[in-house]
Design goal:
Number of helices of chain B: 3
CATH topology of one domain in chain B: Histone, subunit A
CATH superfamily of one domain in chain B: Glu-tRNAGln amidotransferase C subunit, N-terminal domain
Structural class of chain B: alpha+beta
Oligomer: heterotrimer
Strand order of the largest sheet of chain C: 3-7-8-11-1-12-13-14-15
Shape of chain C: elongated
CATH class of one domain in chain B: Mainly Alpha
Chains: A alpha/beta, B alpha+beta, C alpha+beta
Radius of gyration of chain B: 23 Å
Strand content of chain C: 15-25%
Number of domains of chain C: 3
Largest sheet of chain C: 9 strands, mixed
Number of helices of chain C: 16
Radius of gyration of chain C: 29 Å
Order of helices and strands of chain B: HHEHEE
Low-confidence stretches of chain B: none
Distance between the termini of chain B: 40 Å
Helix content of chain B: 25-40%
Largest interface: A-B, 69 and 53 residues
Helix content of chain C: 40-55%
Number of strands of chain B: 3
Mean pLDDT of chain B: 90
Chain lengths: 496, 97, 482
């Protein structure tokens, strides 16, 4: 096993014990990137020189016997929607090509303080709008398990990079499933924290009341490790909650006997791939074997989640993306006749079609005469969806569901019909509407060796519980741990 | 609750509000796509939400308020660094005709 | 048709906090180099988020309480969405359905009457200011504008009145009083020329008989207090004229042109603004603590009305004087300082309302920058009381004090213009004058009082005003009787 195949906690341990140096680990990471990223295309920007320099600095600290912070020497890849000072941040869009933020997102500062080394920015669906990373203005990312398939989205680059051992840990963002779904399609662990658990300062906004930053990692322990670092109240974010951050590593040690698990029946109806269903069924049996109680529950308003989400998210997005007007930064059209046409041309040339579609939808939903029928209505249905969860969580500790109705689909398979693409988020969206925490972990593989994930949902601020359940499952399931063999396909890749 | 389907004219109005422009073909495509999406959204009308409060904020906590203390601003260079349309420290923009 | 003027005002005041409303940049932006007073938050850079400055809330509550508003204990922010280069986020964080203060009022005294009118305040809400656009190039050719974001994020309170004004003058009276109030509250310096207080108006003419409402015209760009009455009066006259000619009034926005003294239509290809208001997701609804409101109410700084009453009572000066002396906080402060150093409050009042204000206006100096401080004014008055200078001389001394900044005794010493106190010397001059003007002496003896004044004047001429008038009067009277 090469160094890049280690987990973050193993790396931290080995560096501390002086068994390996941070520099050699980092070098191995870049070797892997050099080997596979031309096929996977997970990265948009790579900070090689700076990363190796920081790795050397860690080694100096080790030599001097200094105390090392939590993530010392760990390579972290950042989804390109999070502001990194001095490094281009494009959000996968032409309209922000060349934009270099003069400040760091709070999570970046936290990672740096913890000794993590940021190695680059990863590819994503433009402005986090998509479920396959095919909406990136810079070309799609390819799933390491099958290069002709999507890695999922919108955090496809982050997820693929971790799965391909191009980084130990990555940060993604999740508004409707964008951490959990790609983590699932790439066989990784992905956690969306409770809304307000992690600061959004520096997270380029898509839907302000739904967005959260979270880790994508190789195992549950790494996930807990990163959560310890990035969680917490931030004075720069009025929506970040002032609650103490527990040690997320601790609960992983306890068992799950008598844990009450609810399985919402509405998540198992039409549209689900039979292989996904059988993987879930096997997984639930494992939970039972570990002492948990598994029962069917109902979340009756599930079927209204999609329209509710798309009305709220697009409305907020239409406002959040209005600032991209070519005035202060980013792309500005070359030819226009006056201010109004400058705005129109800049935005029409700078945004991709999915972004434009969502801006149109959102603008319409908020426009005069339609606000009550669409936006306000969706806000009310959101209450009903949230209440469904509140009711269920009064009796159950966690819920277990699939993450995606199918394993990774082929590139170009769903791009032509937006509604079809939207439907791939049906299991993840309701969780964002209710602001709950949820983790996606691998629970099997399809016959064609594609990962299948399961989702564990918890009450607000119960990351400890879902991590505990995930850890126990990870340690005790009968799924062999596999690695993708990344090799170029025989046929030409389908291009956009 | 009236069931509204979006017309091409409305698409043009919304595009203007959003400062987006489309050619005729794109307008037609958008109109039909938005229509099918909005048609799917009609589901929501089946629900009686008369006495339901909207959720504007999924969390509830005390207001975060900052002290009235001044901190350093960005330098002019940092502010202007992402644009090439500048003059004497200002951002240059076309006038409204 | 007999018309009734109907005016409503929309006023924006910049709140005098140290830091901006949602970030910690300084509010001291005037005169700074462009784009040197900003940060990711007020620039609206991707990923930035707002956090409310608690002083802004306090100042806005103070203002609402002083205007007798009910405070909404849950008050939330909304986004007002529109595109303009001075608005970096393409939305302004403002308030919509739950403004901080509602249903308030302010009483104003109507001109030339003892009647008071209650002007209803519809709402007071909090919002952020936008940047500044400087327009360059020729208006007719393709040209450009320059954007400076230093002013983005300056905290504003918006105060909206019901259309309760019945004349342009009433609107001005209201604004002057409002300015005085916000100054006394310490929340705004009320400087319209610098933009810390801005006023837009809605004007229509109502049929006095039927009560039928007229078409509302919005007036913007009123840049000074003097312009308020002029602009509103012009618009009222313009509308009256149109109606008299049988024309219709168009619903539109008009700008006040400072140089031509007219309002000009700003109707371009107007798309009615669809602001798509929705609750600001990045800021939780403000829960305004009842304790805080009561605390503010209890500790509210003395308002001009109360100060005026106190001046009348404590300093025994007439209402007229008190009204003027409390018309601005700085003026009231000046007076109180002076009165603490000198007991004759009416003399002080006279000098301040007279000479001081005259020179301040002539030289265009603010009272806070007055070269004659309360201490210096009192110093001069004391010289008068001691007989070192006469009342007439004092006026010259005051002018010199104002123009040089020196204090009275220094000026008197330097110019050697002390009063002549040597009575013998004065009597010599009196004798001289009496001898030189036999006719006047005769006139006086025949009862012509005016002749005495003439004789006094002559003495003054010889003494170059340095004789004490009272003494001269008496001396001449005596001499003449002899």
């Amino acid at each position: 096993m090469t160094l890049n195949q280690l987990t973050a906690h193993e790396v931290v341990n080995l560096i501390q014990k002086k068994k390996i140096t941070a520099h050699e680990v980092m070098q191995d990471i870049f070797d892997q990137i050099d080997k596979v990223d031309n096929m996977i295309k997970a990265f948009l920007v790579i900070n090689r020189k700076e990363a190796l320099k920081q790795a050397k600095e860690i080694d100096v600290k080790v030599k001097n016997g200094e105390e090392l912070p939590f993530l010392a020497g760990v390579a972290v890849a950042i989804k390109d929607i999070i502001a990194t000072q001095g490094t281009e941040t494009t959000c996968g869009s032409k309209i922000l090509k060349g934009f270099i933020p003069p400040y760091n997102a709070t999570v970046i500062n936290k990672l740096k303080e913890a000794g993590a080394i940021i190695i680059g920015k990863t590819n994503m669906d433009e402005f986090a709008m998509g479920s396959s990373t095919e909406n990136s203005a810079f070309g799609p990312t390819h799933n390491p398990w099958d290069l002709e398939r999507v890695p999922g989205g919108s955090s496809g680059g982050s997820s693929a990079a971790v799965a391909a051992d191009e980084t130990f840990v990555a940060l993604g963002t999740d508004t409707g499933g964008s951490i959990r779904q790609p983590a699932s399609l790439c066989g990784m662990v992905g956690l969306k924290p409770t809304y307000g658990r992690v600061s959004r300062y520096g997270l380029v906004a898509y839907a302000s009341s739904l967005d959260q930053i979270g880790p994508i990692t190789k195992d549950v322990t790494d996930c807990a490790l990163v959560m310890n670092v990035i969680s917490g109240h931030d004075n720069m974010d009025s929506t970040s909650v002032n609650l103490e951050v527990p040690d997320y590593l601790k609960p992983c040690q306890a068992g799950i006997k008598d844990l009450k698990i609810g399985v919402p029946k509405e998540y198992f109806i039409e549209g689900i791939d039979p292989e996904v269903k059988s993987a879930l069924d096997r997984a639930l049996k494992i939970f039972e074997k570990l002492g948990a109680r598994v029962e069917e529950v109902s979340l009756p308003h599930t079927k209204y989640s999609l329209p509710t989400y798309y009305l709220i998210a697009t409305a907020e997005a239409s406002s959040n993306l209005a600032r991209y007007d070519g005035v202060q930064y980013g792309y500005r059209a070359e030819e226009y006749k006056d201010l109004s046409s400058m705005y129109q041309k800049t935005r029409s040339e700078g945004f991709g079609s999915e972004v434009k579609r969502r801006i149109m939808l959102g603008t319409y939903a908020l426009s005069s005469g339609y606000y009550d029928a669409y936006y306000l209505k969706a806000q009310k249905v959101r209450t009903l969806i949230k209440e469904d969860f509140d009711k269920v969580f009064s009796k159950y500790d966690i819920l277990v569901t699939p993450v995606s109705p199918t394993p990774a689909f082929k590139l170009n398979e769903k791009v032509s019909d937006p509604l079809t693409m939207y439907l791939s988020d049906i299991y993840t969206i309701p969780i964002n509407l209710a602001g709950l925490p949820a983790i996606s972990i691998n629970c099997g593989y399809s016959k064609s060796n594609l990962p299948i994930g399961l989702q564990i949902i918890g009450r607000h601020f119960s990351e400890e519980t879902i991590l505990r359940a995930a850890f126990n499952f990870e340690q005790n399931n009968d799924v062999e741990k596999r690695k993708p063999s990344i090799k170029p396909t025989k046929h030409k890749e389908a291009t956009e | 609750m009236t069931e509204k389907i979006i017309t091409k004219k409305e698409v043009e109005y919304v595009a203007k509000l959003a400062k987006l422009e489309f050619n005729e073909g794109e307008k037609d495509e958008f109109t039909s796509q938005l229509n099918s999406i909005l048609d799917y959204f009609k589901k929501l009308n089946k629900l009686d939400t008369e006495r339901v409060e909207p959720t504007a904020y999924v969390i509830s906590m005390p207001n975060l308020l900052n002290e009235d203390v001044v901190k350093p601003s960005l330098s002019q260079n940092e502010v202007l660094s992402n644009s090439k349309y500048l003059k004497n420290g200002y951002f240059k923009v076309p006038k409204i005709m | 048709m007999k018309e009734e003027v109907v005016i409503g005002l929309e006023i924006h005041i910049q709140l005098m906090t140290k830091a901006k409303i949602f970030c910690q940049c300084s509010t001291d932006y005037i005169g700074k180099e462009p784009n040197t007073n900003t940060c990711p938050v007020c620039l609206g850079l991707p990923g930035s988020l707002p956090v409310l400055n608690k002083k802004v809330l306090e100042f806005a509550v103070r203002t609402s309480v002083a205007l007798n508003c009910k405070i909404n204990q849950v008050s939330r922010f909304h986004r007002k969405n529109y595109f303009y280069p001075d608005l970096p986020k393409a939305y302004q964080i403002s308030q919509y359905d739950t403004p901080l203060g509602i249903n308030g009022y302010m009483e104003i005294s109507l001109p030339e009457s003892t009647e008071k009118r209650k002007i209803r305040i519809t709402r007071v809400h909090i919002e952020e200011d936008a940047g500044k656009l400087v327009h360059e190039g020729d208006i007719t050719f393709s040209s450009y504008s320059l954007a400076d974001y230093n002013r983005c994020g300056i905290p504003l309170a918006e105060i909206v009145t019901e259309p309760d004004f019945r004349s342009a003058e009433e609107a001005q009276i209201f604004l002057v009083k409002l300015r005085s109030i916000v100054q006394h509250l310490g929340v705004c310096d009320g400087n319209m020329e610098e933009g810390s207080m801005r006023c837009d108006a809605n004007i229509s003419l109502r049929d006095a008989k039927t009560g039928a409402l007229g078409i509302k015209v919005e007036i913007k760009n009123i840049n000074s207090f003097k312009a308020v009455k002029k602009a509103l009066q012009f618009e009222v006259d313009r509308q009256k004229k149109l109606l008299a000619e049988g024309e219709k009034i168009m619903q539109e926005t008009r700008h006040w042109d400072e140089s031509k003294f007219i309002t000009v239509s700003m109707r371009s290809k107007e798309e009615a603004h669809d602001y798509r208001y929705f609750p600001e997701p990045d800021l939780l609804p403000l829960k305004v603590d009842l304790k805080m409101i009561n605390n503010i109410r209890k500790n509210l700084s003395e308002l001009p009305e109360a100060r005026r009453k106190r001046f009348i009572k404590d300093y025994q000066i007439p209402e007229y004087d008190a009204e003027i002396l409390t018309s601005s906080k700085a003026l009231g402060d000046y007076y109180e300082k002076a009165v603490s150093l000198y007991s004759n409050s009416k003399v002080l009042s006279n000098w301040i309302m007279g000479e001081l204000i005259r020179y301040l206006n002539e030289e265009k100096v603010e009272i806070k920058d007055s070269p004659v401080s309360p201490e210096k004014l009192v110093g001069m008055l004391k010289l008068m009381d001691e007989g070192i200078i006469s009342g007439k001389m004092a006026k010259d001394v005051f002018e010199k004090m104002f123009k040089t900044g020196k204090d009275a005794s220094q000026i008197v010493k330097e110019s050697g213009i002390t009063q002549i106190t040597d009575e013998n010397e004065l009597i010599k001059i009196v004798d001289k004058v009496v001898n030189e003007n036999p006719k006047s002496v005769e006139d006086f003896n025949q009862g012509k009082e005016k002749a005495l004044n003439y004789l006094v004047g002559q003495v003054m001429r010889y003494t170059k005003g340095r004789a004490k008038p009272d003494f001269i009067f008496e001396a001449i009277k005596q001499r003449v009787k002899e």
